[in-house]
Amino acid sequence: MLLAAAFALTTALATGDGILPPAPRVPSPCSRGVPTCPAPGTQDLGIAVGETAPGGPLESLDGKTVDLSAYLGKQPVVLEFWATWCGNCKQLEPAMRKAMATHAKQVRFVTIAVSINQSVERVKAWLTQHPLPGEMLYDRKGVVSAAYDAPATSYVVVINRQGKVVYTGLGGTQNLDAAIRKAL
Fold first, then answer.
1. Whole-angstrom distance, CA of residue 5 vs CA of residue 146
2. What would the DSSP string read from start to end of 26-47?
3. In the beta sheet, which residues pair with residue 110?
4. 160 contact partners, CB below 8 Å, separation of at least 6
5. Closest Cα partner for 72 from 114, 113, 115, 110?
């Protein structure tokens, strides 16, 4: 929901080459002990654990349409909603690389580049300088981001071979190995 709203806001606010300066980091109210925040370990954002993972239209970086449903229900899948400008994604990258090296034979890794403040061309240029393993797909219209109710980039969804969501997490410090074990 938040990413979907951001797509609309970005379209309205973008100037020049479409890149806005990064927003200042604001501490989460939950890190300050706000009483209305969910208890640790509970989920308050994103697609619910236990839900059937939805498909949706994405693009390969060479412009071909790919439906996410083609990956679901066959083997476990790890999705990361990602952006070139995402600091948390960069922080999560070593753990994601390690998870890919450990589980690549059993699990499909799909990185979904959101279209907020980045184009396919920008993603390709970034990947030329910083190659990432796994498959990179582009969510041009935000349909898949909205279907997963992705609250922000660095949002990870782990899906088991039955197509059910078994884990969601957000931020640069996630225990991906433990999350993936839930899907195996």
1. 9
2. ---GGGGT-TTSPPTT---SSS
3. 79, 135
4. 76, 166, 182, 183
5. 110
Which DSSP category does 71 fall into?
Answer: G
pTM given for the model: 0.75
Beta strand pairing status for 65-67 and 77-82?
Answer: unpaired
What is the Cα–Cα distance from 131 to 73, expressed in whole angstroms? 28
- pLDDT digit string, tens, across residues 82-117: 888 888 888 988 999 999 999 999 999 999 998 888
H/E run at residue 170: strand 165-170
What is the C-alpha radius of gyration for the chain, rounded to an integer number of angstroms? 16
Q: What is the amino acid identity at position 154?
A: S
Task: Report d(CA 125, CA 129) in Å as an integer.
Answer: 7
DSSP 70: G
Q: Confirm or reject CATH 1.20.1070.10 for domain 2-181, answering yes or no.
A: no
Q: Who contacts 179 (Cβ-Cβ below 8 Å, separation ≥6)? A: 78, 156, 158, 166, 167, 169
Which element (helix H / strand E) includes 73? none
Q: Which amino acid is at 156?
A: V
